[in-house]
């Protein structure tokens, strides 16, 4: 391990950005958060004196270069709408050109299992072929190929950290978030089926210390790594535990592939989910023993504990929302 310079989080306003920023801050490191709009960055990071807030236009070369100026490491978390995955490769190409021009030394892409396609067997290690059979998988593969091809050129070292599906307190983009909200409110939760296939989820707050460590581990660069969750469990078991914490039986509305197709006729997001539904019926489970050998043991929150924290956070959020609504009603 070594001491590292300043880290920039590109696309920082999402859940992963906030979690990695918290880990950097806890390690006593200054960092820069980069996004299109200042307001959400101020809301998320304005309280932290270690955070430098910068806006960028990822379509403008000078803006990318300015956002990366003075950074040693860039962590790339930039998302695109689920129906616009074709934007991933060109966006990455522009970003890499900008960070090279700015003299950045290290680049970390937080990646997904999409480029693998169907798992030949589980769990899989990093030697598994990358053979995506979906459009989104091909776009993610093209994106990470650009990152890996940039390694060793113009003084830049790169890596990809591959994560499974994630969950965590009040993380709206998680497949499981509706379960926690439903349990907290005593309402029916909408889920994407099937529910009885063992699935891997990572408790997203666990990734922060790992990413912070990788920013100062030179031997990690030039390849991709897996970061796995705390084993597997079924979505039905998640629901059972979540509702049990509030003294209720699960109330679930399950959308399988057929229903997703029907809903997709009127809802573009649901239409996009159809293509990736294979991950619900044929999950990809990651083996991260290589990463453990590199950086040592990795703290992983057990599902029981993670689910409890998520339900508590959903209950607190619902309570705060109710208080705000009552206050607004009185004001009116």
TrEMBL record:
Pathway membership, UniProt: Bacterial outer membrane biogenesis; LPS O-antigen biosynthesis
Transmembrane regions: none
UniProt superkingdom: Bacteria
Domain NAD-dependent epimerase/dehydratase: 10-213
Pfam families: Epimerase (PF01370)
InterPro entries cross-referenced by the UniProt entry: Epimerase_deHydtase (IPR001509), NAD(P)-bd_dom_sf (IPR036291)
Family recorded in the similarity comment: Belongs to the NAD(P)-dependent epimerase/dehydratase family.
This protein's name: NAD-dependent epimerase/dehydratase domain-containing protein
């Amino acid at each position: 391990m070594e001491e590292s310079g300043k880290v920039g989080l590109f696309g920082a306003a999402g859940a992963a950005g906030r979690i990695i920023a918290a880990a950097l801050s806890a390690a006593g490191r200054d960092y820069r958060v980069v996004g299109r709009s200042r307001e959400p960055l101020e809301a998320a990071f304005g309280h932290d004196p270690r955070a430098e807030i910068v806006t960028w236009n990822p379509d403008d070369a000078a803006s990318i270069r300015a956002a990366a100026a003075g950074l040693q490491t860039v962590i790339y978390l930039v998302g695109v709408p689920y129906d616009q995955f074709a934007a991933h490769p060109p966006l990455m190409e522009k970003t890499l050109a900008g960070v090279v021009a700015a003299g950045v030394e290290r680049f970390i892409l937080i990646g997904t299992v999409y480029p693998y396609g169907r798992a030949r067997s589980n769990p899989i290690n990093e030697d598994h072929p990358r053979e995506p059979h979906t459009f989104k998988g091909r776009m993610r593969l093209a994106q990470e190929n650009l990152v890996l091809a940039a390694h060793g050129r113009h003084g830049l070292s790169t890596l990809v950290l591959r994560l499974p599906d994630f969950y965590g307190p009040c993380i709206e983009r998680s497949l499981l978030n509706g379960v926690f909200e439903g349990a907290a409110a005593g309402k029916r939760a909408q889920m994407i089926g099937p529910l009885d296939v063992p699935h891997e989820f990572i408790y997203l707050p666990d990734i922060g210390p790992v990413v912070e460590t990788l920013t100062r581990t030179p031997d990690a660069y030039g390849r991709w790594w897996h970061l796995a969750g705390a084993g597997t469990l079924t979505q039905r078991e998640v629901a059972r535990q979540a509702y049990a914490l509030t003294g209720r039986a699960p109330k679930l509305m399950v959308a399988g592939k057929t229903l997703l197709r029907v809903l997709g006729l009127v809802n573009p997001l649901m239409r996009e989910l159809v293509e990736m539904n294979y991950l619900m019926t044929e999950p990809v489970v990651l083996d991260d023993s290589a990463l453990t050998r590199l950086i040592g043991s990795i703290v992983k929150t057990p599902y029981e504990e993670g689910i409890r924290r998520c339900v508590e956070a959903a209950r607190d959020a619902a309570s705060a929302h109710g208080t705000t609504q009552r206050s607004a009603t009185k004001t009116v």
